Amino acid sequence: MRYRALFGMLLAGFMCSSHAADPIDALAITCNNCHGADGVSVGPSMPSIGGLPESYLKNIMMEWKSGARYSATMGRLIKGYSDEQIAALANYYAKKPWVPAAQKTDPKLVALGKKVTSRCAGCHGETGKSEDSETPNINGQWSQYLQLEALKYRDDAVTMPNRQMRNAAKKLSDEEVKAVAEFYASQK
Amino acid sequence: MSQFNRRDFLKALAVAAPASVLHIPNAKAASKARIVVVGGGFGGAAAAKYLKMLSPTLDVILVEKNKIYISCPLSNEVISGHGNLKDLEIGYDGLKKRGINVVFDEVTAIDPVKKSVALKGGKTLAYDAMVLSPGIDFNYAGVEGYSEALANGDLPHAYKAGPQTLVLKKQLEAMPDGGKFVITVPPGPFRCPPGPYERASQVAAYLKGHGKTKSKVVILDANDSFSKKGLFEQAWKTIYPGMIEWVPGASDGKVVKIDPKTKTAYTNFGEHKADVLNVIPPHGAGSIAKATGLTNEKGWCSVDMLTMESVVHKDIWVVGDSCVHGDLPVYGAPKSAHMAVTQAKVAAGAIIAKLNGQPAPVPYFVNTCYSIAAPDWGFSVVHIYKVDNGKLVYVQEAGGISPIDTPALAATRKLESEYAIGWLKNIMADAFA
After folding, report:
1. Mutate to test the interface with A, among B355, B366, B416, B424 (most CBs of A within 10 A)
2. Of B21, B341, B407, the CB nearest to A157
3. From A15, which residue of chain B is nearest by alpha-carbon distance?
């Protein structure tokens, strides 16, 4: 453990300056492979995770681990880590800044999305910026990723824990799903 | 080639890192050490980047032959026309901006005793530590009748992405309906374990998409099983019924000889005449590793599993496809870009620790490898390793392949086909940007 802490110090030196050494950094850099440096993804199908609420991140990883929440890939990864490591990863990424992805969106769909999202705003806010610890930021999240998430909620064969989100997603037409994703993706 | 550029370096620092680095008391002299990284693929690029990120005062030199790197992951999709070779290309400007000295040259010799590297251009570089990431070289003599000249001509292996990929694509496009596309698979280990089978799937995707469903893809395999076998076979049965035939080694699948003129592949007892013959020759570690005496009797570089340092020569860390990492055949780390990048990060941490007189940090190794069998039909295998009693072990309760039978089949295959593409963008940035 002592040496992990030392490695953490090395990493902490460039990542977060004055913070105390955090041994989780050595594990967290393996997440960069798919989620980008500091959790800022550059691949439209992969979500940015830096700056998401700690509680949301921890819950979602624990639900993948237990199987309560469906995942295509993450469950097989996260089962390899202890609850303590998961909690530390959630804390690590929650401290990073949320960086909306630079992406092109379709103005027509964004306009339609703005109308449709009136029913999403109760939980996700008007712009998708998280207002509570259980809800992820989706302002500036990748449009393609948001559409792929909606696909999970709209498919009864997929186990997703949030009934409210499932009901809301199922009420949308295919075009409206795209529009909602484009709208939130366009928000900063 | 750009020398260390202070302005760019400060700019990069301002973006990535607001502070100075080494908090360890005796680190000052070590922090100026020179690290030579040989090979600018995923492993070498990531090693150079993470060394410089973790310790910006290090003198990091990356030696690479080519100015543009072309990703092998997702290059099978170029053959089928579902991907574009241009999207797989990346240069070294991102690394240069970080203050890494990128030298476009070829290493002709490594002296592990004097700790120096000779370059074709005439220079000699001394090093305090080296990362060797030469990738694989092909053993053309492993298939009688095949040669490097044929590979660069009419019989591309296309197992390093580039011009050969496009030649193979053209040959596929020219193949008439009813034609036979033969892929020969060498004995393992080889890079990208699911690669030949993903290629067969992509070839079938092209044929099906162009109404050439009387055509056949035949895989002549020296091995008796393969990566993600159940997942591939499910995809073939569902999407390409009757189009793909796999001949295992036990059923005389091992190709020993070819006739390039008639495009015939010979096994021990049989012969297969092809319309397109795609020979993947046997692999070994890059020839510079062998010339430096770093390879074992099987032609691969043995490394300390927790640090990636060579077990033959100290102060040389070997990462990527050329090393053998993990002792159990089933759980040995696969030769993938994802693995190379995680190995590079571990090596970077271990090198900095050693330079500072510290024991190596606890390593984290993980592999995620996606394959695309058809549009909207992707799947993956995951490997997680942890250190247990000083040994690297495969974590049995995690990892494994995507589910074969699942009620959420369509969603799962669709999601992973899209994740494959997002994964590549992120891992290219992680290594090169």
Report:
1. B366
2. B407
3. B17
CB A145 within 8 A of CB A39: no
The H or E element spanning position B119 is strand B116-119
Give the ipTM.
0.89
Contact check, Cβ <8 Å, A10/B395? no
Say how far apart CA B300 and CA B321 lie, in whole Å.
9
> Rounded to whole angstroms, how far apart are CA atoms B315 and B309?
7
Distance from CA of B110 to the nearest CA of A (A): 29
Residue of B nearest to A18 (CA): B19
Compute CA B309 distance to the chain's CA centroid, rounded to the nearest angstrom: 19
Smallest CA–CA distance from B400 into chain A, residue: A76
B244 SS3 class: strand
Q: Which residues of A touch B352 (CB under 8 A)?
A: 10
- Which one of B13, B15, B21, B306 makes the best mutation probe of the A interface by having the most chain A beta carbons within 10 Å? B21
**pLDDT by 10s per residue, chain B, length 433:** 344 343 443 343 333 333 333 344 444 467 789 999 999 999 999 999 999 999 999 999 999 999 999 999 999 999 999 999 999 999 999 999 999 999 999 999 999 999 999 999 999 999 999 999 999 999 999 999 999 999 999 999 999 999 999 999 999 999 999 999 999 999 999 999 999 999 999 999 999 999 999 999 999 999 999 999 999 999 999 999 999 999 999 999 999 999 999 999 999 999 999 999 999 999 999 999 999 999 999 999 999 999 999 999 999 999 999 999 876 655 678 999 999 999 999 999 999 999 999 999 999 999 999 999 999 999 999 999 999 888 888 999 999 999 999 999 999 999 999 999 999 999 999 999 9
- CA–CA separation, B52 and B66 (whole Å): 21
A133 in contact with B, Cβ within 8 Å: no
**Of A32, A5, A86, residue with least CA distance to B362:** A5
